[in-house]
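Morning!

This is the sequence you dropped in the shared folder:
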Amino acid sequence: MNSQYDVIVIGAGPAGYVCAIRASQLGMKVACIERRSTLGGTCLNEGCIPSKALLQSSEKYLSFRNEAANHGIVAGEISFNLTNMMAHKNEIVSANVKGVQFLFKKNNVTWIRGSAEFKTPGTIVVAGIDYSAKHFVIATGSESLLLPGIDIDETRIVTSTGALTLKAVPRRLVVIGGGYIGLELGTMWSRLGSEVTVIEYLDRLIPTMDAEIADSAKKILEKTGLKFKLGKRVVGATRTNASISLALKPTNGDGDETLEADVVLVAIGRRAHTSGLGLTGIGVALDDHGRVKTDKHFATNVPGIYAIGDVIAGPMLAHKAAEEGIALAEVLAGQAGNVNYSAIPAVIYTWPEMASVGKTEEELRGAGISYRVGKFPFTANGRARTMGDTDGFVKIIADKKTDTLVGAHIIGPDASTIIAELVVAMEFGASAEDIARTSHAHPSLSEAVKEAALAVGGRALHI
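The structure's back. Tokens below.
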């Protein structure tokens, strides 16, 4: 049996399922291969969605416990039920993955269940059945990077997957990795009572973020109880019945130490997932990091085979992957699909949240580009004061010669929402002056954006 399609997408995460839906909307006969029993990939099943559900639940718990009295709300003892919290998370996940299944049916996308392997560049095999297509799209996503010598059991030494399904709050949680995954999950468990220590190989947190944002985040998170060991690397883990002992070495100089934990979260990043696809056998080229090599139209070196999302170069972000899925579907339909990578936002969902788009000061200095900076603190924002969330600031970076917005960085309440205005501004080539002359509702958190834009020209009004 051999089924013929216009497009077969391998992987039903944000890159794959969006590409499949858009291709079908454009009139193509489309199938999507997914080895999981549910659609949505890592993001919907065990990444973005479940982690945000638990972050939201833990955030509400902490807010009720610590801040109710400030708002004149009198309540009894506040506690939480972890089992119920996990059940709520699972309900959210179930609703989302069923939503994708509904969208497949609505858009006539065939879901082929099973693991895929290329037989030839034009044929793929799933569960012993051959499927052919004019175009194949590799959208198999990524998987957690592992540390040599640190064996994952997803119970005591866990990746993000295991950290989202723990049966009890660990007394001592050690997070290896000071990026967005480590900070988000470390924050979540800290709110519920864990003593959390974050170990980072570099001498700073979140190296992809603006350094000033990262420094501010460290200070704020330390006030909430998180501890940090920067410039350290984990070289071994010894399990006993009572605990896990981690051996640490400094990245520079002497000073070996050990650290005891009940649960260890390995969150040092992710890598492209390409194993089992038979890519080598059909000649698809990979780069030094194991990612699929593509051109600007997502084509591999093998005609008819494309790749998008975490499996190719670029930031491993669900929305970046989805934009690539849309763009590729439009390219395959003969349209001019495009992704503006300079206007892809990044968010860390701690509280306060962190969000950014465009270049950092460090990148601009390294490139020899002259720029101006405008900043505005949330302590001077009326809406933030009413909320009791005044930590952080908005930072806008504009080209010194043209005033064009080249970067924006926020740490503060609802930064994930506020950043959208600045993404749109960058997409349309706006200047700081354009933002400064745009009316913003009062009182609102977004007024901090206007003030930061005014500050680029040295004329902020409320500081």
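Headline: The mean pLDDT is 96.

More detail when I'm at my desk.
O.
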